[in-house]
């Protein structure tokens, strides 16, 4: 059983106003095949958590640890973390000029697996995943995210999730900006990945909407850089009805 | 032909302060906005005003390094080249008063005119076969003294062939390359610059493309200190077409310039221009000025030009200027595009977050970006060699970072 363990994680970021402490001691344990939803108001540090786990250079770890099956991730480079089995589906995937989707995916797959995938099986997997995500074959030859709509970018993220087969995935507001059809397609992709590989999921979202399609085992409410409350799926429903107001009194997060 | 061999260069004239010498003024001292085809031309350097560096054709270039090629005497003696005997191609030297000289164009700048009037003979490459073979001409013996050269590449009617000019070693060279594509011929000319780090190379290409003929023209500039290749391609008869490509990779301190000019003279002519460049390292500077002129008789012209630059590090500069002049309204299409994009930290993070190492990420981006041009060259062996050369260039400039 794989386990991703986040302990007392403290993270700051440099802003024009100086160093800003965003995560103030986060504790979370995610087991193989589990889906954890992280919900919370804007500015609570949800995305910071996602980027800190992935190792974005903008975020400075002040303390704590993130271990994957006992192995410390925070001292590893971004690519080493990915090769260890972490994946971040980004909220705003960047365009990569000059690199086709197919070239990118094959290079990433080769890097993750340590060897090039066998051509025939790879093309078959790629076609099947793209078809399931309702992505036209022409996407393969387009440059990564260049000229993609918001929905196309999110599908492309989930395509990578399916093909790279990480142990744990952080989905950073993958639902934002998606219409209901696209939301269903993307959610199905996440569920497929989970069914196929026993993926553990950290699902970061502002809304309950995606949780109708990707069912969480646990829900954590994130406020002011730490987990303020946790529970089962019923907590998400309660948040939808009541909002985050009851958590925000006295907190002072931008 | 014989192995590369340098004939004794003439005694080098001591450098003098440039621009102080008085020159007769051929009317080019100040040129207001004008039609591209009306730019002043002359085969004599003295007809051009001394170069100040402020002129549009020189304003981007590091004149301190190259002014002497516009102003000082050059050694115009023959420098032998190496080329295998290939069926359908011939290589010889012709006198500078040969009737072929000047049939594809005339100098538009002072370095070109200086070379024109100095080169004693012209290397003459003739393509006569219809089978589409490939000839590689290796030019390696120029040395570091200032020199002039002249090349004429001629494709006989209905011939087909690929002529590759490969440049390496030292150079301090101003030259003119004339390309004559006669009716129905399909000619590819590739000029590859892999000079030593200190090399200076100013090359003006003039091409004339005849009825239903096609010129595929490819510039690949990787090595050298200052390398400028400016092709002027005249589509002078009905049905003439050109595909003009460029690929350049500038690293720290390198200046690479190219100014393709496509002149649609006749009706139903077609042109495609696509140049791509990568820049990495402090002081890497590239210039692309793409002129397309659709003349008053060029009805049915179909034209598109684009330039894309990929900036890989801080401290680089890419100038990209497309110009389109249309003198007839009755055309199929005329478009242009220019973009300069950065490979930045967010892209790096994205690729790394998918397991790809930093080095591999940069290589992936550059390789992908330039592959589009490499694939167009039309010589599998050269394409493969250049893919490797670009990769080596990238690794070298990464190491220097």
What key phrases describe this protein's structure?
A: 254 residues, alpha/beta, Rossmann fold, six-stranded mixed sheet, B: 401 residues, 5 helices, disordered N terminus
Overview of the structural elements:
The complex is a heterodimer of chains A (254) and B (401). In chain A, helix 5 (150-164) runs parallel beside helix 6. In chain A, 35% of the residues lie in helices and 28% in strands. Chain A has a single domain, classed as Rossmann fold (3-Layer(aba) Sandwich). In chain A, strands 6-7-8-3-9-10 form a six-stranded mixed beta sheet, with helices on both faces. In chain A, strands 2-1-4-5 form a four-stranded antiparallel beta sheet. Chain A is globular, with a radius of gyration of 18 Å. The longest helix of chain A has 18 residues, at 180-197. Chain A has eight helices and ten strands. The relative contact order of chain B is 0.10. Chain B has one domain (36-344). By secondary structure, chain B is an alpha/beta fold. Classes of the chains: A alpha/beta (254), B alpha/beta (401). Chains A and B meet through helix 2 and helix 3 of A and helix 3 and helix 4 of B.
């Amino acid at each position: 059983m794989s386990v991703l363990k986040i302990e007392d994680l403290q993270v700051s970021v440099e802003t024009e106003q100086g160093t800003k402490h965003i995560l103030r001691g986060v504790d979370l344990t995610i087991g193989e095949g589990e889906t954890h939803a992280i919900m919370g108001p804007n500015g609570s540090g949800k995305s910071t958590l996602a980027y800190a786990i992935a190792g974005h250079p903008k975020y400075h770890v002040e303390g704590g640890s993130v271990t994957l099956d006992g192995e410390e991730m925070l001292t590893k480079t971004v690519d080493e973390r990915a090769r260890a089995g972490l994946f971040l589906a980004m909220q705003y995937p960047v365009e990569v000029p000059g690199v086709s989707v197919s070239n990118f995916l094959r290079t990433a797959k080769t890097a993750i697996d340590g060897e090039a995938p066998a051509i025939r099986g790879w093309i078959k997997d790629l076609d099947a995943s793209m078809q399931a995500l309702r992505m036209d074959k022409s996407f393969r030859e387009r440059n990564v995210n260049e000229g993609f709509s918001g929905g196309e970018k999110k599908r492309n993220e989930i395509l990578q999730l399916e093909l790279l087969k990480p142990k744990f995935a952080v989905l950073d507001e993958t639902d934002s900006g998606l219409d209901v059809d696209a939301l269903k397609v993307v959610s199905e992709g996440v569920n497929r990945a989970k069914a196929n590989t026993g993926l553990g999921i950290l699902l970061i979202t502002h809304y309950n909407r995606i949780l109708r399609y990707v069912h969480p085992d646990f829900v954590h409410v994130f406020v002011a850089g730490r987990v303020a409350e946790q529970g089962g799926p019923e907590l998400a429903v309660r948040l939808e009805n009541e909002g985050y107001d009851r958590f925000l009194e006295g907190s002072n997060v931008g | 032909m014989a192995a590369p061999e340098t004939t004794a260069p003439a005694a080098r004239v001591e450098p003098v302060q440039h621009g102080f010498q008085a020159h007769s003024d051929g009317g080019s001292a100040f040129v207001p906005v004008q039609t591209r085809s009306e730019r002043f031309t002359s085969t004599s350097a003295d007809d051009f005003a001394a170069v100040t560096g402020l002129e549009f054709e020189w304003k981007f270039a590091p004149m301190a390094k190259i002014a002497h090629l516009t102003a000082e005497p050059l050694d115009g003696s023959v420098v032998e080249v190496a080329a295998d005997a290939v069926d359908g191609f011939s290589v010889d030297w012709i006198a500078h008063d040969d009737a072929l000289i000047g049939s594809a164009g005339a100098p538009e700048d002072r370095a070109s005119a200086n070379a024109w009037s100095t080169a004693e003979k012209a290397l003459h490459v003739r393509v006569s076969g219809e089978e589409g073979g490939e000839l590689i001409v290796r030019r390696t013996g120029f040395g570091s003294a200032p020199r002039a050269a002249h090349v004429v590449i001629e494709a006989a009617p209905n011939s087909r062939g690929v002529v590759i000019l490969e440049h390496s070693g030292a150079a301090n060279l101003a030259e003119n390359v004339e390309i004559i594509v006669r009716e129905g011929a399909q000619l590819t000319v590739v000029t590859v610059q892999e000079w030593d780090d200190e090399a200076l190379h100013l090359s003006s290409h003039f091409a004339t493309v005849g009825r239903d003929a096609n010129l595929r023209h490819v510039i690949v500039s990787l090595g050298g200190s200052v390398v400028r290749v400016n092709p002027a391609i005249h589509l002078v008869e009905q049905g003439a077409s050109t595909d003009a490509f460029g690929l350049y990779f500038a690293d720290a301190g390198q200046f690479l310039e190219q100014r393709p000019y496509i002149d649609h003279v006749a009706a139903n002519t077609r042109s495609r221009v696509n140049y791509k460049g990568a820049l990495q390292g402090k002081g890497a500077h590239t210039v692309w000025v793409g002129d397309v002129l659709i003349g008053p008789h060029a009805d049915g012209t179909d034209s598109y030009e684009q330039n894309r630059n990929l900036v890989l590090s801080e401290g680089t500069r890419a100038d990209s200027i497309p110009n389109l002049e249309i003198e007839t309204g009755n055309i199929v299409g005329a478009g242009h595009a220019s973009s300069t994009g950065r490979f930045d930290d967010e892209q790096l993070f994205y690729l790394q977050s998918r397991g790809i190492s930093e080095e591999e990420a940069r290589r992936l981006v550059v390789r992908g970006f330039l592959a589009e041009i490499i694939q167009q060259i039309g010589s599998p062996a050269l394409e493969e060699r250049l893919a490797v050369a670009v990769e080596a260039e990238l690794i070298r400039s990464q190491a220097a970072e």
